[in-house]
């Protein structure tokens, strides 16, 4: 017997919408192509993770020009969130309105911040976010305070916070989905980019998924890789989901389909699913796969050879002084936040010719930062399929903002007493918050989805993951995806599951 609803993917979008459907009486099947991430020694070994690539997928994508590369996307129960930095931050209120950047206009959302605010609060409770209001001047209105205090600064980071305040900046505590005591019990490492095999990091598997699976009507099937969707003869609704598991082809016929495979793979599934008229499913607008965005970002190491940084996890601070402007009334730059503590082995993975002892010294005397700027939507920045291949044509935009943010932060860190400041941008192998490929909007001519993430073309299809985001903003997208997932779940309960 087919379930009422099939959810494709158990990442932030899929697991959260499943939690929002718990108790509705609907039968729900979650299809996850990966398996549960095993608890092994590799999980806390920086060499295994960053040098040997133990967890990287065994697949290759291609650039539009033909060059293959190994993507940094992960296939496990919980999706990419198993490796995320657990930063659960709201888009700023201004991010929902049109905003001019160096690279062009970031378009307005089809609704404002106030529409999503209650769902942000519910998502923060679901992911047990640690934080503190009142420190960040760009913080939007919260109707519900954080339930837990922020993860504490380690001594070197408390010093960095004081140094930034000393030059009249506004460092603020990162809102984090981390139970720090539980995390450190399993190993004295950072959590940023390290896989979560316990309960220390509140990811899709440890946060919303248990809420969903507590309902006996909701079940999870792993190792289930979805190939394509099938439409009814008239093309108005999705009739079936085709997938394979253990080499066996399977077909399931739900009443509703929620596609939450991630911004890349959701677009790929749609592009591989034929629709009448020679187009693919949900693609009357010809926007499926287009408007791909991936934050423009860089790592920055502020180094003082006279002072050690003995932090274990480090990632507790952010700086939004340049989020809404360049500090001089000009265009926005972006967000600055700490990375998880880098060690010499991680540096060796990127700087192979340098001697290990020099990298160890550098890492032990550095405070490691992550600079993030908005990538703007462009229809020619896109995901495509070519037979069995996934082809990515990423047209980066607004790089001037990253250049300026790098320059201003280098000056600030030198003013704080760090004589050596090094930076390096991230490339396409790092999935820095992929989004925008199946965007929502108010016009079916320019967007595949409506404001509740329902496909304009097919009444029983929803897409709920980073693909729906109209803009990338310049903050981590996980909480925004979760908030919208809860909003969509509530909409489905009210409109599709009424008795």
List the keywords.
499 residues, globular, 11 helices, alpha/beta, FAD/NAD(P)-binding domain, five-stranded parallel β-sheet
Notes on the structure:
The protein is of the alpha/beta class. The chain has a single domain (5-495), classed as FAD/NAD(P)-binding domain (3-Layer(bba) Sandwich), CATH 3.50.50. Helices cover 23% and strands 19% of the residues. It contains 11 helices and 20 strands. It has helices at residues 12-21, 46-51, 113-126, 155-166, 180-185, 208-213, 263-271, 344-350, 356-364, 399-415, 478-495, and strands at residues 5-8, 28-32, 61-63, 68-69, 99-101, 104-106, 171-173, 218-222, 225-231, 238-245, 248-252, 256-259, 296-303, 317-319, 335-338, 366-373, 382-386, 389-393, 420-425, 461-463. The strands form 5 sheets. The chain has a 6-stranded antiparallel β-sheet. β3 (61-63) and β4 form a beta hairpin. α1 packs parallel to α11 (478-495), α3 crosses α11 and α8 packs across α9. It is globular, with a radius of gyration of 22 Å. The mean pLDDT is 95.
Principal-axes shape call: globular
Widest beta sheet: strand line-up: 7-14-15-16-13-19
**Structural domain tally:** 1
Total number of strands: 20
Our Rg estimate from Cα atoms comes to 22 Å
CATH architecture group name? 3-Layer(bba) Sandwich
Number of helices: 11
Per CATH, the class reads Alpha Beta
What structural category arises from helix and sheet content? alpha/beta
Helix content: 10-25%
Which helices and strands, and how do they pair?
Elements: E1 5-8, H1 12-21, E2 28-32, H2 46-51, E3 61-63, E4 68-69, E5 99-101, E6 104-106, H3 113-126, H4 155-166, E7 171-173, H5 180-185, H6 208-213, E8 218-222, E9 225-231, E10 238-245, E11 248-252, E12 256-259, H7 263-271, E13 296-303, E14 317-319, E15 335-338, H8 344-350, H9 356-364, E16 366-373, E17 382-386, E18 389-393, H10 399-415, E19 420-425, E20 461-463, H11 478-495
Helix pairs in contact: 1-11, 3-11, 8-9
């Amino acid at each position: 017997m087919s379930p009422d609803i099939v959810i494709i993917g158990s990442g932030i979008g899929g697991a959260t919408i499943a939690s929002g459907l718990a108790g509705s009486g609907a039968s729900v099947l979650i299809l996850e192509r990966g398996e549960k991430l095993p608890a092994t020694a590799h999980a806390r070994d920086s060499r295994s993770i960053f040098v040997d690539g133990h967890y990287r997928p065994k697949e290759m994508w291609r650039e539009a020009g033909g060059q293959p590369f190994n993507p940094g996307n992960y296939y496990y129960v919980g999706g990419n969130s198993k490796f995320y930095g657990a930063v659960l931050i709201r888009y700023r209120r201004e991010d929902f309105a049109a905003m001019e950047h160096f690279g062009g206009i970031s378009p307005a959302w089809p609704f404002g911040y106030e529409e999503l605010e209650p769902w942000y609060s519910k998502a923060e409770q679901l992911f047990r976010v640690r934080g503190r209001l009142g420190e960040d001047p760009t913080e939007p209105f919260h109707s519900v305070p954080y339930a837990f205090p922020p993860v504490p600064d380690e001594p070197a980071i408390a010093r960095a916070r004081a140094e930034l305040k000393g030059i009249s900046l506004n460092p603020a505590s990162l809102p984090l989905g981390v139970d720090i005591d539980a995390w450190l019990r399993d190993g004295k490492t950072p959590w940023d980019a390290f896989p979560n095999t316990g309960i220390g990091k509140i990811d899709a598997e440890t946060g919303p998924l248990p809420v969903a699976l507590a309902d006996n009507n909701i079940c999870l099937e792993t190792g289930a890789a979805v190939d394509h969707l099938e439409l009814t003869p008239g093309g108005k609704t999705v009739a079936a989901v085709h997938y394979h598991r253990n080499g066996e082809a399977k077909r399931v016929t739900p009443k509703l389909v929620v596609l939450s495979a991630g911004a890349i793979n959701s677009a790929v599934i749609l592009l591989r699913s034929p629709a009448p008229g020679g187009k693919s499913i949900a693609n009357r607008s010809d926007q499926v796969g287009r408007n791909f965005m991936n934050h423009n970002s860089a790592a920055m190491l502020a180094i003082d050879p006279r002072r050690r940084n003995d932090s274990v996890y480090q990632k507790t601070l952010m700086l939004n002084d340049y989020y809404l402007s360049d500090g001089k009334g000009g265009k926005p730059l972006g967000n600055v936040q700490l990375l998880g503590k880098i060690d010499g082995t991680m540096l060796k993975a990127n700087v192979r010719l340098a001697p290990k002892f020099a990298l160890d010294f550098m890492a032990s005397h550095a405070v490691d930062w992550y600079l993030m700027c908005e990538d703007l939507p462009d229809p020619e920045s896109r995901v495509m399929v070519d037979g069995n291949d996934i082809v990515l044509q990423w047209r980066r935009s607004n790089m001037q903002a990253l250049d300026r943010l790098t320059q201003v932060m280098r000056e600030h860190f030198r003013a704080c007493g760090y004589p050596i400041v090094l930076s390096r941008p991230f490339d396409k192998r790092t999935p820095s918050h992929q989004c925008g490929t199946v965007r929502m909007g108010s016009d079916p001519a320019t967007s595949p989805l409506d404001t509740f993430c329902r496909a304009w073309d097919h009444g029983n299809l929803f897409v709920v993951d980073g693909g729906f985001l109209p803009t990338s903003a310049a903050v981590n997208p996980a909480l925004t995806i979760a908030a919208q997932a809860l909003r969509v779940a509530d909409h489905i309960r009210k409109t599709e599951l009424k008795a």
